Amino acid sequence: MDMCNNRILTSTRREALRAISCGFGLLAFAGMSAQAAGAPRLFGAGDEDDSNPLAPKAPHHPVKAKRVIFLCMSGGPSHVDTFDYKPQLITDNGKSLGGVRAGAQLLASPFKFNQHGKSGLWISELMPETAKHADSMCLLRGMNTAVPAHAQASVLMHTGSFQFVRPSFGAWTLYGLGTVNQNLPGFITLNPPSGNGGAQNYGSGFLPAVYQGTRVGMERTARRNGGDGGMPNLRNSSLTTAAQREQIDLVQRLNKERLKRDKSDDQIEGVIESYELAFRMQAEMPDLMDISDEKPKTLEMYGIGAGNGNDDFARQCLLARRFAEKGVRFIEVNHGGWDTHRNLKADLQKQAGQIDRPIAALLADLKQRKMLDDTLVVWGGEFGRTPYAQNADGRDHNSKGFTMWAAGGGVKGGTSYGATDEHGIEAVDGKMDIHDWHATLLALMGMDHERLTYRWAGRDFRLTDVKGNVHSGIIA
User: Fold this and answer.
1) Do 303 and 202 sit in the same domain of this protein?
2) Domain of 216: which CATH number?
3) pTM (2 decimals)?
């Protein structure tokens, strides 16, 4: 503060350290920075390209999954109506519960369950096409999470924390392993919801901006809004490619000049890489998102153009395969509307009807292209639903026990891991919370969740914070 002129002068922290006490603060900071620079690398085997933060990096141990496709069902799918068969719930239908749930009446699933594949996994009639891949699926029936509220639970599922802004799972994956196609984003989220955590679900938090997810909308929506293949403003109609290159070069020179002055700034470094990636994407992204080159048989397999109004999710699944094939490291496919507080039967039939065929097609497509073995496909939402009724024909949120599943990427197919109690209220065996889930998925990708760290605000942060255990029982 300038007391003489009664003014407040704003400054950066580095400028304050330089000005206060004859610069002794900055001197101490420089010493700490030098010490940190000489410290051992926190990640990788030492053969990474330091000049490119997106270059492929060495894993901690042998890799089973080279990429992830996360099928995110926003709203909390009911496990007892989809993948968690509870015959006792049928027997006790209509009975009242006691204790803290006194008066709540158990509600049997209106859908039949059948055993599928050589493994005999019990799966609901809601998912007949997906069930054909039972022998490739590992049902995680002991899932549980810390909060039963949508937005907080979704952010926790994506970032490992619902209390603070943290990097997303996809961002950590990209930071840890880099990406093999430098002309495409390493982390893409397809049609993400604006609610339930919004941009936090694919953000980079304190990691450099280059690691955040690239949001891609649906083609139909993009065309209606005058966009370009699901990505508005991907192409510049006012400037030629050469002129754009000159423009970017000028901006990058300014960014690099600022970086020289500040010595180190993760956000500016991230912006520099983001500009370069955006420029390179113009050459490859539009063609990749144009599915007109797919065979009619493939489009039919996914259900695209079937005339049932469910094209959006089918296109997302097909695009996920195309992105995976081109080297994208982490792809999230989103589908909402699973918040079934009422109209359970009708709403679940509608939601499952939109996803069942495309998901089955995605698994089949990856198999026939010899990609499923090293592609980790994960399905699930932020929590499950109660086995007792709400509003007579609906179910409330349930964070104490629910089901997610994984296929390919080194998991044991045809396996049921963990369990809820006889009614499906609470996980009682093979309990896996979100930190365990993250740790296990990272392990499948060759990363040790305790070594995948980033120094920020004076300490080493990781996706699992100070928690998380790898559940080796699901790893083949």
Assistant:
1) yes
2) 3.40.720.10
3) 0.84
